[in-house]
Amino acid sequence: MTSTIESPVTSDNTAVPHYQMFIDGRWVDSAERYEIINPATEEIVATAAKGDVSHADTAVAAARRTFQEGVWRNLSGSARAAVLETTADALEARSEELAAAATREGGAPIYLSMGLNAITPISNLRYFAELARTYRFELPGPVVGGIAHGGVVRREPVGVCAAIVPWNFPLALAVWKIGPALAAGNSVVLKTDEKTPIGALELARELQAAGLPDGVFNVVTGDGEVVGAHLASHTDVNKIGFTGSSEVGKKVSEAASRSNLKRVTLELGGKGPNIVLEDADMQMAVDGAIWGFLMHAGQACESGTRLLLPASVHDRFVDRLIERLKDVKIGDPLDATSNLGPLIDAAQRERVLGYIELAKQEGATVACGGGVPAGVDKGYWVEPTVLINVTNDMRVAREEIFGPVLCVLRYETVEEAIAIANDSDFGLSAGVWSNSVDTALEVSRQLEAGSVWINDFHMANENYAFGGFKQSGVGRELGANALDPYTEVKSIQISMEPDISKRAYGLALPTPAPAWSR
Ligand code: NAD
C-alpha cells in the first residue's frame, strides 16, 4: 500500500498519529502496525508501520536502481553538500519539535534531546556536507620513476549502504551513517529502532524536500530480527553501518560476511572506566563522575560506568558523590528542569534492577539508590544507584548494564588503575581527571579506548573520530576520515613505458616485444 502524501504522518482519524515508512520517495504503509510508547508515562505516542522483508527488498531495489542510474553519485561533491546543508537548515527550523518528539518516544530529558536529537545531528550534517565539498574523490597517483608510470587514485562510493541504529540517540546515530554515506555518493536504506523511528522519518521528509532524488534514501521501520537481519544478509547491500549491542553486532558482522563480504562498521557496547587521579579537583571530578554515568539514565554506550578512585580519597569522594546526587532532579523529561528521565522500557528497567540484585549477591554494597524512585507508578524509572566495594572481576563491573548504575572501584597506584581500566572486553571510552594535563595525557596514552576525555566525559565531537577498541566495535565514525569507510579505493595506473615496467618486475621480454605487452 503506497501513498504520495508529503508527510510521514497520517492521522487516520485515530487519536494518535501514525508514521509510515519512506521507500523510493513515497510514504508506504504496512498491514501491521505497532505502538510507540512514552517511557515516562506509558502512554501511546504514535503508531508506526511494521515493515517486513518485502519492504526491505523494495527499499534495497530502489537504492540499487538509483545507484546504477547515477542520479546522486554522479553529482559533484558540492551539489551533494548543498542538499545536506538545506536539510540541516530545515531541521534546525524544527529543532524544538524534533527534540520534543524524541523525548516523548525515547524518554531523554528535553535538554539532552535538544542537544543529541537536534543540535548535534544538524551540526553533524553540516560537517559531512563540508567533507563532501572538500573530499579528494580523485587524486593524481604518485609517478614512480623506476618503473616509469603514473596514475590516478579514486575514492568511489561503495554502492548500497544499510544503516541500523539503536533507540538511545536515534537521529544522531543515524546521521553518523547517513551523512557520510550520502556525502560520498552512496544510496542508503536505514532501519530505525522499533521504539524510536520519528526523527529519521522527519529527516527523510526534509532530505526529499531539499532535492534528494527519490530512492537514494529509504527508511524501513520494523523488527531487528526481521528487517535488520535481512539487510545484514542481503546480497545487494554493499556496506552496513551498525550501532547497537556487541551481541547483535556480532550477528550482523557474521551475516554480512557470510552473505557477500559486506564492508562493515560496528559501534557497539562499552564499560567505560572513569579514572580520578589523586591530584584531581574533587568537586569537578564528582560532577564529572555523575555526568559520566547518569547522562540519559546511563543509556549511552560511552558512559563512564566504572569509577576508579585512589584509595586515599575514596571515602571522601563517595560521600560527596552521594550528597551531590541529591541535587539530581528526577521527573517529567519534557520539563526543562528535569535532569534524569526513565529507562526505555519495562524490560530494560527489569534488567537494570536485576543487575543491582546481582551486585549484592556478588558482594558489592549499594551506597545509594538501588530501586524505583518513591511515588512513581507510571513509567520505567530507576534511581541513580552507586555500588561500592566493587571489584573488577564481578559481572556488574564487566557487563554493560545500560542504566543509571555506577560501579566504584578502588586503586592504590596509577599503574593499577590503568590495568583495571584495560581489563575489559570493551574499549569504547575512558575519562581521566587530573590537575596536570601532562599526567592525564600520559595515562590516556596507555588506555585501550577509542575515545579518552580529560576532565570531561561524553565529548562526541564531529571533528574527532569515534569508535571502539576490542569488542566495542570495528571502524570509526565522525572525524576527518568519516567518508573513507563509505568509499572503495580504486588505483588506476598508467604505464608510460611498458617494457621498462615489466623489466622492473624481472620479466624477460622477447625482442621485439609482442603486441600484448604494449
Ligand atoms: P540492539 O543491539 O538490541 O539493537 C540495535 C539495533 O539492531 C536495533 O535497530 C535493532 O532493531 C537491531 N537488531 C536487533 N537484532 C538484530 C539482528 N539480528 N540483525 C540486525 N539488526 C538487529 O541494541 P539496543 O538495545 O537497541 O541499544 C543499546 C546498545 O547499543 C548498547 O549495547 C549500547 O552500548 C549500544 N550503543 C553503541 C553505540 C556506539 O556508538 N558504540 C552508541 C549507542 C548505543
From TrEMBL:
Domain of life: Bacteria
Aldehyde dehydrogenase domain ranges (all copies): 27-492
TM helices/strands, residue ranges: none
Family annotation (InterPro entries): Ald_DH/histidinol_DH, Ald_DH_C, Ald_DH_N, Aldehyde_DH_dom
Keywords, comma-separated and alphabetical: Oxidoreductase
Pfam families: Aldedh
Entry-linked PANTHER family: ALDEHYDE DEHYDROGENASE-RELATED
Protein name: Aldehyde dehydrogenase family protein
Record organism: Nocardioides endophyticus
Organismal lineage: Bacteria, Bacillati, Actinomycetota, Actinomycetes, Propionibacteriales
